[in-house]
Design a protein that fits this description.
The protein folds into two domains: 234 residues, TIM Barrel (Alpha-Beta Barrel), CATH 3.20.20.60; 43 residues, no CATH class. It has eleven helices and ten strands. The strands form two sheets. An eight-stranded parallel sheet has the order 5-4-3-2-1-8-7-6. The protein has a two-stranded antiparallel ribbon with strand order 9-10. It is globular. Bound molecules: coenzyme A and magnesium ion. The site of magnesium ion (MG) has 4 residues, from helix 6.
Amino acid sequence: MPLRSLLFVPGDSERKQAKAAGVGADALILDLEDSVEASRLPVAREMVREYLAAHADEAAQLWVRINPLDSGLALDDLAAVVRAAPAGILLPKVSGAADIVLLDRYLSALEARDGLTPGAIGIVPVATETPQAMFALGEYKGCSPRLRGLTWGAEDLAAAVGAASNKQEDGEYDFTYRMARSLCLLGAHAAGVAAIDTIWTNFRDPEGLSRDAARARRAGFSGKIAIHPDQVSLINQAFTPDADEIARAQRIVTAFEQSPGVGTLQLDGEMLDRPHLKQAQRILANVPAAH
Ligand code: COA
Ligand code: MG
């Protein structure tokens, strides 16, 4: 099952960490980067390490966002948290696949230091936060077996190019950021990993979030990042096939099973061929156990 909801939790907030465990996110991203004030980073590293150790048995995967590789902070972040065996590292402000290769090596060294299973820790880059990264979205295939997905962000990219805003007058993302989203989607699928949609910043706008998440899922994203507990169940819902979808997918698969050797057939007056079968099989593969 792909990760549907990934909730950011500031690394130095005891209250938010206490709350995070119970909200039903598929993954938590304990943050050591932008949500932590610089003077709090040493404390945050310890808090994140302790949280990982104390919550290892819970259902949510525990990820950590470290500081960028060129910040001078990333190695200390990794040295502090890897020993508590996070599920993965979210790497911000990457320039391209070479950064994943480098992080893979750091993780291998620290896994050996700490006696952890080699290669167990995953990597997801935030793959659109620098202008350079935008030209590298096609190069992630095969860069590391640790790669689990690609995600994108519009805030840091806007800051990096000196944009006054990343939005148009009507509130939609400007072309550059819609392009970032599309290239992230295509780059993830080209690499055979999950495409994870970016945050919806207005956490008091459930309708806007649900619309945005539904749009992302239709486009081919399999999950989305949350910044507030209230967003988690809406995201989980948006990325879970509903009963109608499951029933239709089942009918498509059955129709092909009942017509062996037939490449194209009709259902309810619509033509179906291999891409429809693939899509139906993908929906059924991701049906949660509760259904
Ligand atoms: N994870 C866990 N718990 C959170 C949370 C989060 N991301 N955001 C809020 N909460 C908790 C609050 O602590 C509060 O619980 P409490 O009453 O027990 O303290 C409850 O949820 C309701 O929060 P609310 O009052 O609505 O919001 P807030 O003003 O406390 O926080 C933000 C608003 C935006 C500062 C907060 O949601 C946040 O820190 N989000 C993550 C930011 C982040 O990580 N950014 C980096 C990536 S872009
Ligand atoms: Mg940022």
